[in-house]
Structures are given as structure tokens and as C-alpha cells.
Design goal:
single chain, mainly beta, 22-stranded antiparallel barrel, 5-stranded mixed sheet, 5 helices, about 55% strand, disordered N terminus
Length: about 700
Amino acid sequence: MHKKKDKVQAKSEYSVPSASERQLDESIEVKGSSRKFNADIVQIGTFRNQSIMDTPMTVTVLTRALLDAQGAQTVTDAMRDVAGVISSSTSPITAPNFMARGVQIQARTNYRLNGTLPIIALSPIMLENKERAEVLKGVSALYYGFTTPSAIANFVTKRAGSRPVTVVSLTGDSQGSYGGGVDLGREFGARKQFGARINGYASNVGTTVNGVTGNRWLVSGAFDWRPTDRLSFKLDIEHSKEETYEPGGITVPAAVDGRITLPRIPSIHNRYAAKDAPYNAWATNVLGRMDYAIWKDWAFRVEGGIARTRRQRAISNVSNVDLATGWGTNTTTYAGDQDYYNLNVRTELSGSVKTGFIRHELLFGYNRNAQVQDDQNRTNYKSFRQNIYNPIDMDFDALSATGSTETYGSTNTDTGYYMMDRAEFLKYFTLIGGVRYETYETYTPHTNSDYTVKKVTPIGSLVVRPTKQSSLYGSYIQGLESAGTAPDSAVNAGTILSPVTSSQYEFGARYKVKEALISLAYFHIDRGLAYANQDNVYVVNGRAIHKGVELSIQGSVTHELSISVSGTWTHAVQAQTGNAAQNGKSVIGVPDYALSAFAEYRPDFLPDLGLNAGVYYVGRRSADSLGRAYVPDYVTLSLGANYRLQLPSGQTVTFRANGNNVTNTRYWSNADTVLFVGSGATANFSASFSF
């Protein structure tokens, strides 16, 4: 094994690893400082274990060093470092949703564990057992099949390595949260053929919203077995739970004389939902994998798993708000049996052949995912008067039920056969071509809305490496995507919409400057348009055209200074809607500009001290498909420090303190039919003891 690692590491920076080397994760050892803000290798999709310089799409890697420097405890904390990824649809207090390039990151298809298992982001994704997060922008249908052309958010678990890990951590924040966890990693056996990484974490949770508290916990294990140099097995198991309460949202007012006036932003501490209205979620993810190196450069992989999320939620929104007084009507609906599954299997054969001076890296794969949603019963409660500026307390148990509705479950089956050829020639060029044959079937009991869609979707791209430090690329890819599920705020909540097609052009450049990576990309996406119409029915109608430019710089710009800076300009408009007043208007929730800038300074005279600061800007966004209302732009600031103390006994203690939204800025976290106020100022603290 060690000889194989040395061989891979000695390759020219122009070269891509062979197919079998990319297929077997353990054969590639990513070297570098544990404090790096950027990564050289990606672990996502068909680009798994590939140099980021040879990847013909925009990929942002959020390393553990970056997450730790920011004190990131939630996915919201992590995603703010990715150009153009912003909150969407739901409250950031419970389980936030996001959009990338102006397109929803679909909660049931676009979040992945270790590059493959589609986990269900209807409960908070916990970061304590994750080594890093990766965001692959744009259409990703070749490998992942039925997904929206926004981004694939991949979470890579921590694994045992050659160095033993024993870490005990304590955490807390200024809102009353407190907790702790353990992180244990070991390789063992006569040949170190076994590995185990165990993580456990539990915390009481406080928030900036009055009365919204709770608890969360996580238990996970990542296990490895390498019986021979050719054969390896991996198993990941994680189970998490979060119990908290619903903060409530504010429905966008109706138009008056062709204009919608939004209420002024209420206090960040206000809760509009009834007291103790629950938001509880449980998530279990299990993923197994086998890799076998057949001969020479050929390898075989099979992997599969199950993701399950169960949720209880009291959806609580205030509508018909009087802009002068703040009084409106609170409507509450309780869904206590939301149950979702993803059953996923994938097999792949990869290898390389040479035709003359061209080396072909070939990939053949089969992937099937069954997406199951059980029937859901919703209990409607009698509405009550609520004031968004001076909320009244109403006990959830005191609300009287007025009736119930049922949302019928469904099973969506996504089956795909795919192949891809990476042709490397003349040392400087890599031509990539691939195709996927997709069959998407929906079965909905009790209704007549079943359908089957079959489609062939291609990908083509060219990567040019003018120098070892630079690369240029262009790519085109088509996809078949879900138009999504009608959100809880819509009249047809829970309805799964029919699929639509999407396509994307992207052109980009990357350049390495010592330890920093500069990336620039232009994208153009054409996709089906989904939105809530004037009757608040979530529909698919027309097309959405998204184009924009993204720029990012990640890494160490000097020996003392590391940065993660990204910015995006996005122009997203509606077309072919059949409504002249709607065509040409901005897509709901998409800002023209977004900026994220984070920096950490470690002075040479005190290298164990880190001082950091971040600035995050989101431009104004349309909150209405006809452009009658806009959510204003906002800026938040973060400050932090960390210090690593080496004890005489050999133990290491790392202290961290981070403040988010330190100016306590009031802002709408999203722009949609229901608005939510962003989180207020919070100081996070932690101490980690490494033995």
C-alpha cells in the first residue's frame, strides 16, 4: 500500500491519477498543513479523488481547518463561505434550506454523504463528525441523476488515519447552549488493516429567538477494513436528533395597487409561533462500500445505503399583517408523522486504456435511488391574533384543532446507466465526454399522477493546463431534475412536481499562487421554472435563465495570513411563463450580488494564536414572481480568535471564541412567500483537549 501511495504522490502535476487510483480512496494520501483553507483533491461525483485543477466545474472545498477557524457548528455557518449560496425558504433556526446560483439546493436529492448517499436535509446536518464539506456547482446529472442544477453539497466523514486521534471537546455560546463531545480514531491489526473513527456529541441548544431552545445529539462511526492491497471495505453509520421549537414566519402581504409593501424587520428575538410548538427531527444514515482493484489500472466499486429522516413540525406563519400596528393572523398546522427514505445503490467499473498517444480513463456505472415519502396527516388549528412587533404568548397545547388534511405519500425511482471517458493527450489537454440514460418513475397511491420519464443526458468538457499552476476549462451538461416539492407554505404543500430538463454552459479558469487557489467561472443555466403563483399554488411553468460570474480565492496568501474570499454576480430571470407581466422579472430569492470574505492571521512571533474576521454580504432579492416586492440587502460581521496550548505532558488544548453577526444586524434571511428573520449576535466558545 505504501509503495502505491508514493507512486501516486510522485505523479506530475499535469497528470490525473489512474482510474483505479481514483477509485480506491486509501491509495491517495492528501498531504499538506492541517490548517489549510483550500484543498488539492476533491471527493465528489465522477471527480472523486481528482485534482481540483482538472475538474471542469466549480467546486468549493470547505476544509476542517476553515470550519474550525470559524467555529462552524451548523451548515449555515459553513455555507456562507461558498460564492452565491444563500438561505432560502425556511428559518435558519431550525433546518435551513439554501439556493446556489439562484436555484434551490433540493433537500432530498442534492445533499450527499461521502460522495454518494443522498441524505435528507429536512433535519440539521451535523458537522462534528465531518472532515470537510464540498460544494459542486451547477448541473450534476451524469453522476447524481435526478438533481436540481444548483449544487451538490457533499459531506465527507472523518476516518481513522496513521496517527491516533483522541479529542474531548466542550462547547457553549452566549444564548445558553452548552455541550460536549468525543472524537476517537485508531488503526489496528497486524498490518493496520482495520480502522475505526467514533464521534459522539450532545448539547443543549439556545437561540436568539425567545423561547426557542432544545437539545441535539449525534453518534457516528466510520469503519475501514483492508484485508488485502486489492480489496477494501468501508462502513459509515450516523444517527442524530434535534428537538427544538418553531419560531414562526411572516407571510408576504398581498399587493395593493400593484405593489407589495413589506413590514419593517421585527426584533430578532420575536417568536410568532405558539409557545412550545415543536420542531423535532431524527436522521439515520448508513452507507457501505467495497472497492476491488481487478488488474493493472482497472477497479470495481459497489456501494449502497439508506437515509431516513423523521420529522414533527408545527408550521406557524402570520399573515394579513397590518403594517402600522403589526397585528395579523397566526395560522398553525401540525405535521407529526413526516417520514422520508432514500434507498441508494451504485456500482462502477473504471480503468484506463491507451490509443496511440491518448490515455483514456473510462468509467461505467449504474445507480438506482428509491425516494420514499410516507402518507402525512396534518392537523389544522384555530387561528389566533398575533403581533409581529410585540408578540403575545399562546400555548401550543391551548390551540384547538379545527380539522385535518392528508398528504398522500409517493415513491420516486431514479435509475441511471452512465459512462464517461477522460481522454488525456499532449500532456496539456483533457477531453471529457459522457452520457447517462435516465429512467425516472413516480408512483403515488390514491391519485392518478403517476408518470415515467426517460431521457439521455450528455456531458462534454475540455480542460487545458497551460502551466502546472493554471488550468482553463469549458463544459456543457444536460440534466433531468425534479421541480421540487411544494413547500409547507403553499396551498398544495407536499405535492411532488413533474420533472423538467435543464442545461448548463460553464467556462472557468484556476490559478495557484503558492498556497492559494484563485478560481473564476462564468455559468449559464436554462431550466424549468417552479414558483408559487398568485393563488399560492406551487407550479411548474415557463423557464428560468440564470447566468453569472463567480470569483473565489482560498488558501494562504502569506505565511501568516489565510483567506477564503468569494463573490458572485447572478442575473436570473423568468421566461416563457405565458404572462407578459412576469416574463423578464427576477427569479424569486436571487440576489444580483453576494460576497463572503473570511481571513485568519497567525503572527510568526506567536504561531499558536489565530485572529480572524469575516464579512458577509447578500444583495437585495425579489420576494414576488411579478417583481412587486424586494427584500433589502444586508451585511453581517464575524470576529474570532483561537489559541493552541501545548501542555508539558504532551497534551494539546485548543481554545476558540467566535462571534457571529457581532453588530446584531436585523435582516430577512430569505426572500420567499414566507419571510424569516435572521439570527442575532451570538458568541460561540469551545475547548478541545487532544490526548
